[in-house]
Amino acid sequence: MNKNQVYSINGPVVTVRGATGFQMMEMVYVGEKRLIGEVINISDDHTTIQVYEVTTGLRPGEPVAGTGGPLCATLGPGILSNIFDGIERPLGEIAKESGAFIPEGSDIPSLDLEKRWKTAVRVKVGDQLKGGDIFAVTQESSVIEHRAMVPPTLSGEVVSAAADGDYKVFDTIIVLRDEKGTEQILSLAQRWPIRSARPVAERLPIERPLITGQRVIDTLFPIAKGGTAAVPGGFGTGKTMTQHQLAKWSDADIIVYIGCGERGNEMTQVLKEFGDLIDPKSGKPLTDRTVLIANTSNMPVAAREASIYTGITLAEYYRDMGYHVAVMADSTSRWAEALREISGRLEEMPAEEGFPAYLPSRISQFYERAGYMNNLNGTEGSVTIIGAVSPQGADFSEPVTQNTKRFVRCFWALDKSLAYARHYPAINWTSSYTEYLDDLTPWYSKNISPDFMKCRQQISNLLLDESKLMEIVKLIGSDVLPDDQKLVLEVAKVIRVGILQQNAYHRDDTYVPLPKQLKMMQVVLYFYNKAKEVVGKGVPISELTATGLFEALIKIKYDVPNDNLALFDNYYKDIDEKLGKLNQLAEQF
Amino acid sequence: MLQFVGLNEINGPLVALQGVTGVAFDEMVSLKLNTGETRFGRVVQIEGERVVIQVFEGTRGMSLDNTRTTMLAHPMEMPLSLELLGRTFSGSGRPIDGLGEIFCEKSADINGKPMNPVTRVYPRNYINTGISTIDALATLIRGQKLPIFSGSGMSHNKLAVQMVRQSRLSGTDEKFVVVFAAMGVKNDVADYFRRSFEEAGVMEKVVMFLNLSNDPIIERILTPRCALTVAEYLAFEHNMHVLVIMTDVTSYCEALREFSSSKGEIPGRKGFPGYLYSDLASLYERAGIIEGSSGSVTQVPILTMPNDDITHPVPDLTGYITEGQIVLDRQLDQTGVYPSISVLPSLSRLMKDGIGEGFTRADHQDCANQLFASYARVQDARALASVIGEEELSDVDKRFMVFGKMFEKHFVNQGPTENRSIEETLDLGWLLLSLLPREELDRVGDKVLEQYYRPQAAAEKFHA
After folding, report:
1. Max Cα-Cα span within chain A
2. Minimum CA–CA partner of A476 in chain B
3. N or C: which end of chain B has fewer CB within 10 A?
4. Taking CB atoms and an 8 Å limit, are B116 and A297 in contact across chains?
């Protein structure tokens, strides 16, 4: 009956001898335990399968069964607030069934099949529907309305439609007759192959920022909705912390957090923290808008490779409904290592550092799934990808960092020496960059202030001046510098400590709205210009230090609450008063 | 059980057999030599009827026709029972202390299974080690994995012993045991640990696994797995708090490299196999706490950085998996500072949720932040001083130089038997910070400073 049998086993790579009739990338069940695998290579005498689970105990001769289709994600209500493994198996349900440790071959459906969703059907018999059209809606979580869509490949006329009511995910909602006259049954859920991008009508230009409330990002290196960013950094530089902050505070509608080959305790922390935290915009727990994909470093390596695609597929599905989705991938290096590991088992010819030659094309395929889109159903949505990179030995010249750099437009380089000094977020302002400035300037000018980008430029110039001066200071000390240059150093310090450094554990400082970010820049620059005048008149820098203004400016982030920006006026008054006195003093002599 | 006479191929620790059917991947195998010796092995590759077996004790003395192979039909297992406490085992889990076999309550696959992140409990309970630098600046949390990055000739073993001796959890009397896995360590190092445990009177709470540097490398690959299987059993089935000390992870990784190259695998960086990260993760990720059990597995792996290079693949990949690291510094070590912990690169990622009000003291985070920031500034001042001379430094930088010296002398430095309470440690930290001008303490709010900033007391104590 079933002629396909396991022939050889080498870790997660299994081969089947003979012509098997499997398709490339077809999902298969391997062995008596029905381990999930995927066909990755076919030749005339054998087929190679990558198994997503531990193959301990598998024997040659055990059956291999095809499913006739590629590895698919199940898309429907119930995804939000859930936590899945790399191939969309619900970890919560697995825990209920098998306890604290994950067994092999568990075959639990991704979504809760029994739960009934209160559904409103939006179409009637006789309507013409095309791919992507929304035919029913249900409230998936307190903040997100789930919109059931016609799968992108189908279209036709509605021949029957259910009444509004409570339905399970695979109950028939409508029946569609396509052009060929075949009747297609549509339910709240659909399936989609994870390695193919979901189609859209067109890509739209990028023009809106993803607001994160993190000053160094929003102000110096902003990212756009639909954009891509990489966060590279050695261990201990705060990649994960940065990702967590972005997942908590960025103004996307939905967050897909992919823990790819990272620590188990970190995923537990995300689960716990996001459950406790309240989204400032909706007033609801953050978990209501979050999906977690957890494939920790000790879970099977092949599923780690798939987890990135599972995550982005879920993101695209919500984008199709008209939402703005942000994908956090922590870390893409682990994913690349999974590619390398499997490539090694297949005895492929390695390129740089043992990574397969197709690494750059895989990385670009992933990042290119981001974008601001006009969906098939006419709605607009976006997928933003923020990928952490863990370069070996914190050496940014290694292949994963280098190739990622070519395909992202925002690069937030984390710096070990900043992290050692506990300057967080440890984003280095000289080696980071963003290519979205020109795209976003009109938005900032229109919605915040025309002044914003000008201030940003001045701040960034001051930092640049500082780093040049520091070269000199390192050689001969700061005492020999003239006072106007000393002032640059002092003001740059205010910018570094007062603006760039941000305390994720402080009630106000963890998230700072754009107007406050602008005002902070403005007051520092105002002070700098006034102080430059005073110094120009020959007042020594020590007199300026004695005014205590530097400390006051540094502490603005704590002293001015986010909801009381009127307090900034006091700082202007204070600056005018104290520097005015120094001015008088200078004129007297 | 399936039995086979003879072998078809021998290559390093690997042997191959032809014409085998019905054997499972990862199954255990026993190989009986005609000298009467029995060795154990494991199936690592199957290709149709050809099976590759990895022999734990090495293939010395084996020939193509003097061996009888028996397939044992189960994966590598470790016998488990409470009797394990106080016993000593070989790297592959067989008793070597001459006290006889273990009557096991059950046995478990040494590879374990991954913990489900959903059922993990986020570690929050801090362990008081009595060592200032660790308690204040890189706090060890129960359920954490916190490695010690060291180099040959530094005092990591002494530090590990001190941690075992002094570690306690304030306010409970739950059972605390140690699982010690020696991988490729020298005979006298193993001896030092055994003697220290005996002197501290904790031997009956210790399970030891010894794979010495002249023992077979395949056994070395099994050592941490056996040890962690025992740790999980004691923690999750008997609700004990288990501290696992694994030394030396670098030797373990080298064994893995040797084994990988004998299998003819494509090497990654510095010849280590491409799956080194996944392999290390399969060890380190077995630390943690799970729902439904009050026990915990805390890991302190020790690794020696070849040539003191922190970017070497072993410390590098370890740092990416573990929740922080404690780094020892050779320069400090040479100036006689013990423990020679290099403060700036040392870090505990789980620290922030396990300290402060209700755990240690409300001001702990402030104190730690300011110490880190100020000590980082000391490094700048020192770099400058080495160019222009200490005399030419600005007054503020001179104060930092003094602070740095006193910090190393009084805070970092502490005797191997000195056990400081968390209050003592934090007060000492504030007192040292009081050596600096108040406006330089920019990580702390005024309220906290008012309570703890005491420049006079500091000047008296440190004669500065």
Report:
1. 105
2. B388
3. N
4. no
